Amino acid sequence: MSANSTSLTSPTPSPMPDTGEPKAEAASPLGNVWRSFIKSRSAVIGAVIVLSILLIAVIGPLFLPYGYNQVDANSRLEAPSAVHWFGTDDLGRDVFARVINGARISLWVGFFAVTGSIIVGSLLGLLAGYYGRWIDVLISRVFDILLAFPGVLLAIAIVAMLGPSLENAMYAIAVINVPTFGRLMRSRVLAIKQEDFVLAAKAIGMKDRRILFKHILPNSWTPIMVQGTLNFAIAVIEAAALGFLGLGAQPPEPEWGKMLSDSRQYIESAPWTMIFPGSAIMLTVLGFNLLGDGLRDILDPRMKT
Amino acid sequence: MTKTLLEIEGFKMHFHTDKGVVKAVDGIDITVGEGEIVGLVGESGCGKSVTSLSVMGLVPTPPGKVEAGRIQLAGRNLTQLNAKDWRQVRGNDIAMIFQEPMTSLNPVFTIGSQMIEAIRQHRKVGKTEARERAEEALREVGISRKGILNEYPHQLSGGMRQRVMIAMAMVCEPKLLIADEPTTALDVTIQAQILDLMRRLNREKGTSILLITHDLGVVAEMCSRVVVMYAGQVVEETDVHTLFRDPKHPYTMGLLRSIPQLDKRSERLYSIPGNVPNPRKMPTGCRFAPRCEHVHEICLQSNPPLFEIAKEQHTSRCWLHDGEEKEETDRDRTREIVGS
C-alpha cells in the first residue's frame, strides 16, 4: 500500500491538531477479555466446574465426617446411603471422603506438571525461536525425540527409572508435555521476532535478553495459557493412568486412578467404588477442556475486530 | 558546506545465502551533514532499507556481511563497534522510525511504559522523571491529550502512532534520525502533518535526517540533497533543485517522468520498462542498461563510475556524462589513491 503524494507543491500548513479520536470504550485489553469471557458459554461452564472442583479440593476435606483412610471393617462395600453418600470400598472406607481428597491430588499433580512443562518448554522454545541456528536444531531435535514416544509410554519409562511414586509421576508428566509448549512457544517467537516493534526495540538499543522477556514473551502468553488449560486435563488423565497402573500414587493415597484399579474386582458387586472416582476424573477433564476451548475462542486474535 | 555527521564510504553489505551472494548494497557513498535532510530514493529492492539498517547495525550477520567500506558517525567508525557499543549508539546517537506505525509499537504495553523504557534505556533517570520527559516529548510532537501515556497502541490512529514513534525516537535527542518511509502507510493529510513535524524537529533541534522514500513528492518537500539508488549502487546525487530541474541519470529521468502531472494531460502514465535486476545475477555492465533508453555498446560491457557533472556536488553514474567531464569525481580519485 503506497500513498504516493503526487503533488510537488508544498503542503498546506496545518496547525497539527491533536487528532484525538474518541476513546475506545475499554481502557484495558483485560476488560475486553472479561466481556467476551462472560459471553462464552463453554468458558463459563468450564470455569464454574473448575472453580467448584478447586473449592471442593481446598475446603471440602475440612467438612468430612470420615478421614480418607478411615477403615471400618463392619461396613465394607456398602451401597450409597445417607451415612455414606458414595458408599464404601472393600476396606470400609468412605468413597465420598476419598473422592473429595482425591481432587486435591489430581489438581496438585495437574498444576505442578503443567506449570513445570510450561516453564521449561517456554524457555526452551524461546531460546530455539529467538537464537535459531544450532540452538534451534538442538532443542527442536530433543522435542522431536520426546514426541516420537507415545506420551504415556514415555511417562511409564521415566517412572520406571525414578521409581513409582506420586512425585515421580508428576515429573514424568511434566517431561512428556514439555515439547507441546516448547514447539508452541518457538512458533510464536518465530512470528513475533519479525514484528516491527522488535526491530524498533533493537533500534532504541535494547539488549537481546530484555527484548526476549519484555517484548516477545508477553506477546506469546495467550496460546500458552490456552494450551496450558487444555493440557491440565491431559495431565489429570495421565496421572490417573499412572495411578491405575500402580506407578503413580501409592496406597493408601486416595488417587482417582488408583481407586479405579483397586475397585476392578467389585465392578459388578459394588459399582459405586468405580463410578464415583471415574465420574470425578471425567468431570475434571470436561471442566478444563471446556474452559480451554472457551479461552481459545476468546483469546484468538482472529476473532478480534 | 556544513560539518559532516554521517559518512558512508564505499560501503558494501552482501548477504550470503544458499542460493548465492546477494549484493544488496554494493559500494555506496553517502554523506549527511549536521542539520541536513538528505533524501535516499529508489524503487523497492534497490538497497535503501539495507542501507538504513546497516547504519543502525541491525542487519543480521550472518547472513549479512560487511564486505568493504565504513560508516562513520561524527568521526567514529561504526562498522567496528561491538554489540555493547552498538547499543549505546542506537537510540542515543542514531534513532530510527519505521514505515508501519501500526506494528512498530508493542501491542501489550501502554504508550507510557514503552516511552519510559526508551528513556531509561539511555538516561539514568527515575520513573517519575522519565514520565515527565515522555509527556514533554509527546507535547513536542503535538500530542497534549491527558492520559495518553496510559493508553494502548490499538487505541491510537496511524498518524498518532507515528507521532508517538517520532517522540520516542527523539526522546534522547539523537544527532541523526533515520526515517525509513515514515509516511508511506499514512494517508496524504496525515502525511503532510508528519513531514511538517519532522521538518520542525530538524529546524528546532538541529537533528539531521536521512529520509528514505520512494516518493519524490516527499523528497521535494523535505530534502536539501538527494541520493538516488539503483540495484545497490548510488546512481545520482545532487541538490534537490537540480534533481528536479536537470536530472542527469536516465534512471532519475525515468523516475521523474513516472510522476503524474496535474497540469498536463497525458495519455498514459509513464513507467520505466523492465524490472530491477536479480541481485544474485547483476548485469556485467551498467546495472540500469537493460532498461535504459540510451543504452550504448560500452554500457553493456562495463559499469560506469560516478562522473562529476560540470556543477559542483552533482554526480551521475552514466557513460553519457563521460564526454561532458572526462574526470571522475574527487572522491573516487581519492579512494584510488588511498587504495594504491
UniProtKB/TrEMBL annotation, chain A:
The keyword Magnesium does not apply. It is a multi-pass membrane protein. It is found in: Cell membrane. PANTHER family: D,D-DIPEPTIDE TRANSPORT SYSTEM PERMEASE PROTEIN DDPC-RELATED, OLIGOPEPTIDE TRANSPORT SYSTEM PERMEASE PROTEIN APPC. GO terms for cellular component: plasma membrane. Belongs to the binding-protein-dependent transport system permease family. Residues 1-25 are annotated as: Disordered. This is Peptide/nickel transport system permease protein. It holds the Pfam family OppC_N. InterPro entries: BP-dependent_transpt_permease (IPR050366), MetI-like (IPR000515), MetI-like_sf (IPR035906), OppC_N (IPR025966). CDD domains: TM_PBP2. Residues 1-11 have a biased composition (Low complexity). The chain crosses the membrane at residues 43-64, 105-130, 142-163, 230-249, 269-292. Keywords: Cell membrane, Membrane, Transmembrane, Transmembrane helix, Transport. Residues 103-292 form the ABC transmembrane type-1 domain. PROSITE patterns: ABC_TM1.
TrEMBL record, chain B:
Gene3D superfamilies: P-loop containing nucleotide triphosphate hydrolases (3.40.50.300). It holds the Pfam family oligo_HPY. The keyword Cytoplasm does not apply. It is found in: Cell membrane. It is a peripheral membrane protein. GO terms for biological process: peptide transport. One of its GO terms (molecular function) is ATP hydrolysis activity. SUPFAM superfamilies: P-loop containing nucleoside triphosphate hydrolases. Residues 6-256 form the ABC transporter domain. This is Peptide/nickel transport system ATP-binding protein. It comes from Marininema mesophilum.
